Amino acid sequence: MNRIAAVIIGRNEGARFLECLTSLPNDLARVIYVDSGSTDGSVQAAKAQGAGVVELDMSLPFTAARARNAGLELLFDTEIDFVQLIDGDCALREGWIEAACAALEENPTWAVVCGRRRERHPDTSVFNALCDHEWDTPVGPAKACGGDALMRLSALQHVGGYDPSLIAGEEPDLCVRLRQHGWHIERLDAEMTWHDADMHRFDQWWRRTQRAGHAFAEGAALHGNPPERHWVVETRRALIWGAALPVIAILGLFWSPWVLLVLLVYPAQILRLGLKGRGAGRWARAIFTVLGKFPEAQGALGYYLSRLRGTKRGLIEYK
Question: What residues does each domain of the chain span?
Fold first, then answer.
């Protein structure tokens, strides 16, 4: 454990942050908490637990990428080999760090290992349940990880860490650059973290999905060229289903009301996805997958509009 550190990022996570702190092994070499302007006593709680604290300059725009970099910079050029990145609304599962560390030691070309992130309260809302399903990615080689992962510090330093300008999608962007430099990303068959999305309202889900659409469009702009084609398909789907088809239907009214029949493609797609899906909640997932194309398109179009204006969009927060 004297070769492993942890970097936590958060803002006003309250009891979730306290649980995050106490879930970390006591014998880690260092624990660093990067705070983005909390007013709930998170900074004091971190110090009381013996964590190093970095308080971000509030005059600059906050991003998760910027926060993670602020913690990582304190670890570069030290004796630390591995770093556990974790969000303040998550809690580490027992045994995860040991399993992940062993995997990185056995595979020197692996830069990142992640495991199963589970939603803590999937039954309290359909939105939490959707998150829990989203976290269930295939085991084995992966293109990207989420905010929680154990990483090889030398690999992060090799690619310059996260892109601090990104307001979303910073982990996939990092993983693209790692893979371009010959590193590998792996999803282990192991429990990694509990997550608390705490989503109970439709508008929260909408903003979170809108943020995903922004990330798709910006990721495609950065890494969309062959052979990577990063998020090109996801962006195209969002724009077709969430923007192009509705516009065609509306403009088509000037020609014939029968053009509105094109909107039947939406229930047809829900039916197709529902029949194709498995397990409990498959119809809810089908409905929200199709419905989600509208906020995704909004996020993607918002990115393009900001780019045309030469401006940078601020955070899209759902909590």
Answer: 4-200, 206-309
Direct distance between the N- and C-terminal alpha carbons of the chain, in angstroms, rounded to an integer: 33
Q: What does the pLDDT look like over 172-193, one tens digit per residue? A: 999 999 999 999 999 999 999 9
User: What is the rounded average pLDDT for all residues in the chain?
Assistant: 94
**What's the sign of the alpha-carbon dihedral 154, 156, 91, 278?**
negative
Span 120-145, pLDDT tens digits: 999 999 999 999 999 999 999 999 99
Distance CA 270, CA 142 (A): 28
Does domain 4-200 match CATH 3.30.360.20?
Answer: no
- From the list 225, 202, 212, 219, the residue with the least C-alpha distance to 297 is 212
Q: Do the bridges between strand 4-10 and strand 82-87 make them parallel or antiparallel, or are there none, so unpaired?
A: parallel
Q: Is the pTM of the predicted complex or chain greater than 0.90?
A: yes
Amino acid at site 50: G
Q: What gap in Å lies between CA 13 and CA 19, rounded to an integer?
A: 10
Task: Note the helical H segments in 194-256.
Answer: 202-223, 232-239, 245-252
